[in-house]
Amino acid sequence: MFDRTECVIHEPHAIRVLGAPFDGTVSFRPGARFGPDAIRAASDGLETWSPVLDADLEDVRYADAGDLDLPMGDVQAALTIIREAARCAVHEDAIPFLLGGEHLVSLPAIEAVHERHPDLVVVQLDAHADQRDDYLGLRLSHACVMRRVAEVIGFDRMRQIGIRSGTREEYALMRDHGTLTTFREQDLGALRAWVGQRPLYLSVDLDVFDPSCFPGTGTPEPGGIDWWTFQRFLQSMAGCRIVGLDVVELAPQLDASGCSSVLAAKCVREMLLCAWMGAGHA
Ligand code: MN
Ligand code: MN
Fold first, then answer.
1. Mean pLDDT on 31-57
2. 142 belongs to a structural domain
3. 97: in domain
4. 247 Cα to the center of ligand 2, angstroms
C-alpha cells in the first residue's frame, strides 16, 4: 500500500511520508525503531479503499520518502535530521507524515510545521501524558515530548485525548491548562469546534489503543480505546486543515501475531485519507 516507488509515480505530492526509526530515549521496552518498516510491510495486506471514509489511497498524491538515517546514540543529532526533513517537506508544500519511532520524534516535526504555521494547534492521542519536565534528568525523552511541544506552541494550543497514565504533577498541569478531553460524542464535537479552521498537527501515539488490540508497543497501558473509537475520532475531525501528522510507538517485535503492525498501517491509511480530504481534495 505504501511504497517508496510511489515517490516517482506521484510527484509532485501533497503528503510526504517520512520514516523516523528512532527509539533512543524509550523508558521501558525498546523496538520502536522497527516501526516504519513494519508498517510498510503490513500495509501490503490492506486495501487502498476505506469503506468508512469512502475514499481511496489511489487518489491521494502522497510519496514515501523512506527512512531517515538517524544516529541512535545522539538524540540532538537525530532530532536535527528529523527537523530538517520536516522543514524540507513544508517548504515544498508537502504535509509531513512521520512514521515513528518513539514519540520524541514528533517534537522536531511539530517545530518545523510551527515555523510555517504560527497558529498551529496540536492534538495528541496517547495513553500517557508525556508532560514530565524531565525523565531521569533528561528533558529530551518520549516521556517529556508534549511538555517540550507546549514550550513551542503554548498549552492553550494543545489538546490531549485518551490519556490514562501520568504523575500527580502531570495531571495537575493538564487540569490547570485544560488540555484533557475524551472520546465522548459531545467532547469530540467540542474538540472539532476548538480546532476550527486553524492548522492542525495530529500526533497519534499508538499506545492510546488498548493492549488487547495493540500489544506491540514499548509502554502498554490497560484501559485504552478500540479501533472504532479511533475511527469515530477521525470522522469527527473531518474537514480539519491537517498540516502535519505522525503515528508513533509501534514496536512490532513485541507482538508476534503481527496484528499491531496491521492496526498501525490501517491508522496510517485512514489518516492519509483524512489529511487529503481536509486539504480539499475530496
Ligand atoms: Mn507518547
Ligand atoms: Mn504513550
1. 97
2. yes
3. yes
4. 11
Residue 112: give the domain boundaries.
15-281
Report the pLDDT value the prediction gives residue 279, as an integer from 0 to 100. 83
- 10 Cα: distance to centroid of ligand 1 (angstroms): 31
pLDDT one-digit tens code per residue, 166-179: 999 999 999 999 99
Q: Find the 225 Cα to ligand 1 centroid distance in Å.
A: 15
Q: Domain of 131: which CATH number?
A: 3.40.800.10
Band (pLDDT 50/70/90 cuts) for residue 8 is: very low
Tell me the ligand closest to 206's alpha carbon. Answer: 2
What total number of domains does the chain contain? Answer: 1
- Does the residue 4 lie in any domain? no
For residue 173, is it within any domain? yes
Say how many Å lie between the CA of residue 5 and the centre of ligand 1.
Answer: 30
Question: How much is the pLDDT for 44?
Answer: 96
Distance 32 CA to ligand 1 centre (A): 12
Rounded to 5°, the CA angle 97-98-104 comes to 140
Q: How far is CA 111 from CA 61, 77, 80, 128, 253, in A?
A: 24, 15, 11, 21, 30
129-167 as b/e, with b when 16 or more CB fall inside 10 Å?
bbbbeebeeeebbbbbbbbbbbeebebebbbbbbbebbe
Average pLDDT, the chain: 95
Q: What would the pLDDT profile of 110-134 be if each residue is shown by its tens digit?
A: 999 999 999 999 999 999 999 999 9
**Mean pLDDT, range 74-88, rounded to an integer:** 97
